[in-house]
Amino acid sequence: xxxxFLFLERFGLVxxxxxxIVIFALHPGTSDTFMTVAxxxxxxxxxxxxxxxxxxFTLPLITGKIDVSSGSIAVMSSVILAxxxxxxxxxxxxxxxxxxxxxxxxxxxxxxxxxxxxxxxxRAGADPLIATLSLSIVLGGLVSxxxxxxxxxxxxxxxxxxxxxxxxxPFPMLFLVAAVACIGVWFLLERTSFGRRLHAIGVNPTxxxxxxxxxxxxxxxxxxxxxxxxxxxAVVLTARQGGGVPVNGLNLVLPALAGTYLGATTIRPGEFxxxxxxxxxxxxxxxxxxxxxxxxxxxxxxxxxxxxxVAAVLVAHWFxxxxxxxx
Amino acid sequence: MTGRDGQAALEITGxxxxxxxxxxxxxxxxxxxxxxxxxxxxxxxxxxxTMIKIVAGIEQPSxxxxxxxYGQPITGPLDAATAHAWGVRVLHQRPAQFPDLTVTENLxxxxxxxxxxxxxxxxxxxxxxxxxxxxxxxxxDPRRRFGRFSPAxxxxxxxxxxxxxxxxxxxxxxxxxxxxxxxxxxxAEALWLLDQLKAQKAKGHTIIYVxxxxxxxxxxxxxLTILRNGRMIGTTAxxxxxxxDLVTLLLGHELEAAPRSAGAQAxxxxxxxxxxxxxLAGRDAKSVAFKVWPGEIVGLTGIIGSGxxxxxxxxxxxxxxxxxxxxxxxxTVDLRHxxxxxxxxxxxxxxDRTEMAVFPNWSLAENLTVTQACVKTNSIPDAxxxxxxxxxxxxxxxxxxxxxxxxxxxxxILARWMERNPRVxxxxxxxxxxxxxxxxxxxxxxxxxxxxxxAVIVASTDADELEALAHRTLVINRGRVSAEIPGGxxxxxxxxxxxx
Lengths: 327, 500
Hints:
Distance between the termini of chain A: 9 Å
Mean pLDDT of chain A: 92
Number of helices of chain A: 13
Structural class of chain A: mainly alpha
Oligomer: heterodimer
Order of helices and strands of chain A: HHHHHHEEHHHHHHH
Shape of chain B: globular
Radius of gyration of chain B: 24 Å
Strand order of the largest sheet of chain B: 6-7-8-3-9-10
Shape of chain A: globular
Mean pLDDT of chain B: 87
Low-confidence stretches of chain A: none
């Protein structure tokens, strides 16, 4: 294979994303709104939640176990966080008015606990898709019951909501939190023994067992860590929304999943990889933002995201076929 | 070697296939006569599979002077449909099968036929399959689940499918190409399969048999067609040659004589064995007991299900152990997981490379160092050195493992354990499906490990391998050691007798 071909395969999506940015920056319909600090704050702010959710489910995903519950775990932890610090009378605890940082630690712990539930179910032999989907559905119900169908926004402390508004130039504080988490997950996956073991399990679990990897234990840990990161996503979600909003967690996680699969076609094609996920999510976010600024109707967004995912996967498949043909 | 007046089922002249700059087949000519069995032999990369693919119409030659079936030259391009029409059938190394469907479905799919009302009738289908099976002397119930039959029976059933797949009733002559059909079979089953195949040539079928097992080739083939580095070395009557000469032809030079390491005899002088197992029990193993001293290579063998392979896995902790004691250098150890075994200085090369050992998309270096600290940073110089030490032929340490030949992959797997300087090496079928050149290399590496004081246990169904390697061989029968055979020339006959 010629070098340029491999280069194109790895960085095609990066180039397309850059091209999309240039187009919207120059297009007469968006040139005065797209490249503004406010717009980039909005793009990166939306991405922060998706990045964190992607970072969360990438850990089990690398071992070959899909996890669709990260969004629901984040929503559950978020309403619990809001319930603990807000002035709303919630079931079980009533009005607690806890310090928000202490409550954030509790929310992250709840995330880890729910991740452990996933881990136990999968270890007991449940199919990961069914286990995490079931947990999502159950959590959806529990969230409604806990928040009693309304957003918990009253009495949010300024410390938390300010975090949601704070920005450094075009970079929202929350985006930087997400970026740090992503770099952490990348480091864990690529530069530690634990990460290599996760990869080994994903590629060939039998072989991993036979080189001494404690497969069940490692997969369980991956789900717990995924839950912890979903808990961090809950704190970011609460700060950004100024409270706990009982939304459907599956709707939150699906765009992140799409971005992750899109990212598996770039940087290290054929593998889930954190930089690729970033590119995938950025591509979708900037395109959607530009189209919105152009005045395109809202229904176009999901149609575009779904279409882009299928197109990218097909193109990647086509590249793979070409790459293996001549060997 | 011509001069026989049999009709040529397939005649190839001047077949060349280039891939980019490399020549896979270089003006190869060959003649295959009806009613004979040809052994197609060559090391990996000799061009065997390319030749098969071209004959089956899967690949096109770069150059071809002529190709004829039963004396009829093919003028147009040879595509898969033409090859099929002339009766070319290939049984691939791991043929597709559906263990959970019935024998009938396995043999008739994709077209199970149609009965009254356009619906498929089980009765007629089973009847048809019964006839197909009868033609290969196979008496199995077509209604049963395919997976419950032995691998050899399943292979033979799939061969009957190839003989009948156009509804011709099995009278049509076939050019049957079998790609290592016995690679995953134990010897006794392989032997049965070979006898069944011999019966087929009398029906006018031509069989081209690809295998790395030389003893098999000498048992089944009438002629041997030899390829080396893409060139045709020639076709010779099997009766006119022997294993040693054949290996020399395959390699292009003589095989080095196997040196026997110094610790050839079991040490009964009272020194502490490196590993001692007693009462070892699992699913098949009932109560296995033996001792191996440092520097010794001990063979374990038996039929499938006797527990000889399980014994190695039980010692390594990769299967649940129901009982028994393991001592390493006199110390009792409790190995419940491969990780425990690794810490105790054990290593295991599993029996199925693809399923149990390799990470195909990882680089050679990553596959090699995965048993170390498990971190891939800076492993490239280590891997480079290991490639030289273990004679791994690959473009470089960054090459993806799946791009390597089976023999080179197996060297990487062995190297991954030898790099840890293990006290005990457990090797399960260490050269299964590997060409004679790589097999020789692997055997040399295994002897080197033993000469450094490692206790080596080789669990294998290959009597030739055990004769070549083992200082003594233990036969496992129904979960217990039933015989101990001293190593040395001629021991393979004894091993075979004791297994059956």
